[in-house]
């Protein structure tokens, strides 16, 4: 080959590579989306962040993991265990190290995870997080006498994060100078004792803002007041504001006090909020819950127990729909206090969307009164199927939990006690119309109820 021919061939090769590289770069996004929607990659890796044990010395803290599909291998960090293969429909239950959060990684298929804990006066359940963010919100909370509130901030990354904690009250935002520059070392959790910084606030929202890096945040409140209901509230924060929030579980009537806490993080705009209630038989729109004003930079707790008609009598299950009438986005969190035998506290931040498939982890370590609350905000009827997944047995799809009818605009309670009392189990609900699902259970060992919002999977 002549020298000129070699030079010409070299030019052709360079041009061809350049064009191919440009085409690959221009089309890379399209290729990635097409792969995700049509043929999922054979190897999937995604971390789910679970909180540490929140009660010092509490050996009953747990996290529970379920694979979304067959072929999931689970890796835990930190852990001295090897990667664990999940059989189809099988779940994993583990214990976090005291003070150490847990990273759950699914290989081969995505996984979901929830966390459960016990304190001396009760139990709580919450979701683990599939993301780390720069802003986290909590609409509910209290620093009143007898209430011990902690905010846990976890930095899962190899570089230090710096966060700022702000409080929201009915009179506006409160910023403490010693909470504006909080370091969170790489791979560690920082526990912030709210009562040390702001005292005697019955209504207290909060936000965690990452000045540097990204974090995950949870809120736990241990209540043991001289007057009032004892128990534990446990919530994963939300990174979202929204004009719409769904709360499938809840109660109204004698023996229960339910409230929706609203946080408006806008610095300039007032929010106008309407709360609609749904029973198993129909809808209620109490006048007191129409066009509720939430000033900018403030929080407001709205009690629901006075709103249902007296004919409801004893505890009646209700769902709640929170909507912003003027489009200003807010954060909404429900708290419920059940009085009498088997009473206690629960809390949960609402869902912002509907879906046709929901994964729901266990809500108690030693569950009884285990049930799923489902609301159908759509204009079409829905048919529901429930599958249960266990740690030590094959998944079950009991005939009694198949083809359950749920009318448009209504709600329904699905009792799981027959299959789940005293054992950890995941529930997967599929529907032929968009729904919202939440799970609640009573922890027999802690004498306290707990709630956990489902994770929407198939929209």
Give me the CATH superfamily of the domain at 354-459: TM1070-like
Largest sheet: 8 strands, antiparallel
Helix content: under 10%
Helical/strand content category: mainly beta
The first-level CATH class name of the domain at 354-459: Mainly Beta
**Stretches with pLDDT under 50, minimum 5 residues:** 1-45, 307-312
Oligomeric state of this protein: single chain
Mean pLDDT equals: 85
Strand content: over 45%
Distance between the termini: 62 Å
Give me the Rg, rounded: 24 Å
What CATH architecture of the domain at 354-459 would you give?
Sandwich
How would you describe this structure to a colleague?
This protein has 459 residues and is mostly beta strands. Among the domains are: 42-119, Sandwich (Hypothetical Protein Tm1070, Chain: A), CATH 2.60.290; 354-459, TM1070-like (Hypothetical Protein Tm1070, Chain: A). It is 8% helix and 47% strand. It has two helices and 36 strands. It has helices at 3-37, 417-420, and strands spanning 45-50, 62-67, 73-77, 84-85, 91-94, 102-107, 111-119, 122-127, 135-138, 147-154, 161-169, 172-175, 182-184, 189-193, 205-212, 216-223, 231-236, 244-247, 251-252, 256-264, 271-278, 283-284, 292-294, 298-303, 316-317, 319-324, 331-338, 344-349, 355-360, 367-375, 382-390, 404-406, 411-415, 425-443, 448-453, 455-458. Strands 29, 30, 31, 32, 33, 34, 35 and 36 form an eight-stranded antiparallel sheet that branches. Strands 9, 11, 12, 13 and 15 form a five-stranded antiparallel sheet that branches. Strand 34 (425-443) and strand 35 (448-453) form a beta hairpin. The longest helix is centred in the first third of the chain and has 35 residues, at 3-37. The protein is globular and about 55 Å long. The termini are far apart. Residues 1-45 and 307-312 have low confidence and may be disordered.
């Amino acid at each position: 080959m002549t020298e000129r021919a070699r030079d010409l061939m070299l030019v052709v090769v360079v041009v061809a590579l350049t064009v191919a590289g440009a085409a690959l770069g221009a089309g890379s996004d399209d290729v990635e989306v097409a792969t995700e929607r049509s043929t999922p990659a054979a190897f999937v890796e995604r971390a789910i962040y679970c909180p540490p044990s929140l009660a010092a010395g509490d050996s009953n803290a747990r996290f529970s993991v379920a694979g979304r599909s067959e072929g999931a291998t689970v890796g835990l960090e930190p852990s001295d265990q090897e990667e664990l293969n999940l059989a189809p429909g099988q779940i994993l239950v583990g214990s976090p190290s005291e003070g150490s959060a847990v990273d759950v990684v699914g290989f081969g298929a995505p996984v979901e995870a929830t966390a459960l804990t016990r304190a001396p006066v009760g139990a709580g359940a919450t979701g683990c997080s599939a993301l780390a963010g720069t802003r986290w919100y909590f609409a509910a909370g209290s620093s009143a006498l007898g209430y011990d509130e902690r905010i846990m901030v976890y930095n899962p990354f190899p570089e230090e994060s710096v966060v700022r904690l702000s409080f929201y009250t009915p009179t506006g935002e409160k910023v403490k100078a010693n909470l504006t520059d909080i370091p969170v070392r790489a791979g560690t959790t920082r526990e912030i004792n709210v009562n040390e910084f702001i005292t005697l606030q019955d209504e207290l929202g909060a936000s965690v803002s990452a000045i540097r890096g990204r974090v995950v945040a949870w809120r736990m409140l241990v209540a043991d007041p001289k007057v009032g209901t004892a128990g534990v509230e446990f919530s994963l924060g939300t990174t979202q504001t929204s004009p719409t929030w769904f709360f499938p579980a809840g109660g109204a009537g004698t023996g229960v006090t339910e409230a929706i806490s609203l946080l408006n993080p806008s610095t300039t705009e007032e929010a106008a909020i309407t709360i609609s209630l749904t029973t198993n038989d129909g809808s209620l729109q109490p006048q007191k819950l129409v066009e509720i004003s939430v000033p900018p930079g403030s929080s407001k707790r709205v009690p629901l127990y006075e709103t249902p008609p007296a004919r409801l009598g004893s505890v009646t299950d209700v769902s709640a729909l929170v909507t912003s009438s003027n489009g200003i986005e807010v954060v909404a969190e429900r708290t419920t206090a059940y009085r009498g035998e088997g009473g206690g506290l629960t809390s949960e931040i609402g869902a912002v969307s509907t879906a046709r498939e929901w994964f729901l982890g266990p809500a108690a370590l030693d569950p009884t009164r285990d049930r799923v609350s489902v609301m159908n905000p759509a204009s079409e009827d829905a048919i529901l199927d429930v599958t249960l997944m266990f740690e030590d047995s094959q998944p079950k799809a009991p005939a009694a939990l198949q083809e359950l009818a749920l009318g448009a605009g209504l709600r329904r309670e699905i009792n799981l006690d027959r299959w789940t009392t005293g054992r950890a189990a995941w529930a997967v609900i599929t529907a032929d119309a968009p729904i919202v699902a939440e799970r609640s259970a009573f922890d027999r060992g802690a004498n306290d109820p707990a709630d956990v919002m489902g994770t929407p999977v198939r929209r």
